[in-house]
Design brief:
Radius of gyration: 35 Å
Strand content: 15-25%
Oligomer: single chain
Number of strands: 8
Shape: elongated
Low-confidence stretches: 1-5
Number of helices: 6
Structural class: alpha+beta
Distance between the termini: 101 Å
Helix content: 40-55%
Largest sheet: 4 strands, antiparallel
């Protein structure tokens, strides 16, 4: 039976979803080379279905195959289901359902893309926030180094690293610089401290060579310490200080 041109166009969604019978699939495949609209529609529906399948895909657990094979012998096979509808009514039903199904798939894909866009916007905002924070810290470092009351002290850590501290009482800030600081072992980190009358207070971290702005009130501190701590840091030093350098005259 021949379809009208409009009937053939209606098969694009069902063709993309592989839901046509053999005759209709062959007829639509023969129609595709002569119809740019159907080729584009079929390609769009196929791409949407592929994206949805990829988004919903999950790796099955390794035990699934064993459970399935063990259950095969105990599952009764059902007789084949024979459709009672005529081929004509079946094709009509298929066409009516295929387009809404493909439309729903497109909407779901659009929702997925909207979620991805929202996630990307959130990531961009977080990156912008971190960039602003880094810029603010750099500005603060520069102001400490250029402060009229800035004082500079140099030292050498127990592992051989050369260190420098520049502190400003007026700004209540201090900057720590290390050169030749070996990379810490896995699961360890370098932690900085400010010594307030014998009480060591956390002042931040330094991964390796570089310059960092110390956290805390530098104006009241007597010395700067450096220890090797577990990753994530400690509330109090847990190892012998690699450096305990006075920042007072």
């Amino acid at each position: 039976m021949k379809h009208h041109a409009s009937d053939v166009h209606d098969l694009a969604a069902a063709y993309a979803l592989n839901a046509l019978d053999t005759d209709e699939r062959e007829e639509f495949a023969a129609h595709l080379p002569a119809c740019e609209t159907c080729r584009q529609d079929a390609a769009d529906f196929e791409a949407t279905a592929a994206r949805l399948a990829a988004a919903a895909a999950h790796t099955p657990p390794t035990s699934m195959k064993q459970r399935t094979m063990a259950s095969v012998d105990g599952v009764r096979q059902l007789p084949p289901r024979v459709p009672t509808a005529s081929p004509r009514s079946f094709r009509g039903t298929l066409r009516r359902k295929a387009v809404p199904l493909a439309l729903a798939a497109s909407l779901a894909a659009a929702a997925s893309f909207a979620g991805l866009a929202a996630w990307q916007n959130q990531q961009n905002r977080q990156l912008d926030q971190r960039a602003r924070q880094s810029e603010q810290r750099l500005d603060t470092v520069g102001s400490v180094l250029a402060a009229p009351d800035a004082r500079t002290v140099h030292g050498r850590a127990g592992n051989g690293a050369l260190t420098t501290v520049v502190a400003s009482d007026r700004q209540n800030r201090a900057v720590f610089t290390a050169t030749g600081l070996p990379a810490p072992a896995t699961g360890r980190t370098y932690q900085l401290w400010l010594d307030h009358d014998g009480t060591m207070r956390p002042a931040g971290f330094i991964r390796q060579d570089g310059t960092v702005l110390l956290d805390g009130d530098a104006a009241d501190a007597r010395a700067v310490g450096l220890t090797l701590e577990p990753a994530g840091g400690s509330p109090q030093p847990t190892t012998t200080p690699l450096l305990l350098m006075s920042i007072r005259a």
